[in-house]
Amino acid sequence: MRRYGERIGKNLPDTAPDLLSFDPAQDIALTIRFPAIFAGSTPKDFVFSREDVGQALTVYCREHKVPLPKNATKQIEKFKDGAVLNMQIGGGGLHIMIIDDQEVMRNIIKKLLGKANPSQLSEAGDGVKALDMLRSGDFDPDVIICDLHMENMDGIEFLRALRTDKGNVNSRKPVLILTGDKSEQAHEITRQVGASKVLTKPIGADDLIRQINLVRGHFEAGR
After folding, report:
1. Residues 107, 113, 115, 119: is their CA dihedral positive or negative?
2. Strands, E, within the chain: which ranges?
3. If 0-12 CB within 10 Å is exposed, 13-18 middle and 19+ buried, where does residue 77 land?
């Protein structure tokens, strides 16, 4: 990451970091904290997105003559205390869960997702129903798209319940919050309780599909 950081204008100190946190399910996937250099100064954080980490691994593979299939889907995943770059030839079936209390909105989202050609779409009218489905063991979505403001259980309550439900195998699944609420305070709270990304309506099909690929850890090695 140090060499890749130099390429994108993030020059990491030569000293050893105090903290390294990596979670590919989050929009900010990697945080590296370095200690204060001078008395009275504060520690400095360097943050990298999933795409940054994937690009760094791709550059490393190229520089060390590791062959990369041209038609492969490139995916970044957590491995022990670091990251691993997986290559997948061909696409597996994509399962997306949509949570929204308005049927018309669920239909709009399904239409936007048509270009991604998902193999399975699951729907829930609120967070309570979605949690029941995710706990049942019958649903294993790759990505969850959830509204923020809903009856019975809103998006923040759903995220808080999902992320703390350690017995639920889906508790760490990527969750995209799709909302018409443009309040940055609401967005920040939503991220703090576990949203992988907060997106605002309206959104185009290409952008939504790109964000789905990013939260899944997929990226295009274009730079």
Report:
1. negative
2. 19-22, 28-34, 44-49, 72-79, 82-89, 95-99, 120-124, 143-146, 175-179, 197-200, 218-219
3. middle
Q: Which residues pair with 82 in a beta bridge?
A: 79
Contact 131, 146 (CB under 8 A): no
Q: How many CA atoms does the CB half-sphere of 179 hold within 13 Å?
A: 22
Assign domain 95-217 one CATH number from 1.10.600.10, 3.40.50.300, 1.10.246.40, 3.40.50.2300.
3.40.50.2300
181-187-188 Cα angle (round to 5): 155
Burial class (CB in 10 A: 0-12, 13-18, 19+), 167: exposed
What does R_g of the chain's alpha carbons equal in angstroms? 19
pLDDT digits (tens, 9 = 90+) for 92-141: 578 999 999 999 999 999 999 988 888 899 999 999 999 999 999 899 99
CA distances from 51 to 56, 85, 108, 172, 214 (A): 8, 11, 28, 19, 7
Over residues 196-220, the pLDDT tens digits come to: 999 999 999 999 998 988 888 766 5
**What number of residues does the chain have?**
223
In DSSP notation, 155-219 reads: HHHHHHHHHT-TT-TTTTS-EEEEES---HHHHHHHHHTT-SEEEESS--HHHHHHHHHHHTTEE
Domain map of the chain by residue range? 2-89, 95-217
Amino acid at the residue 168:
N
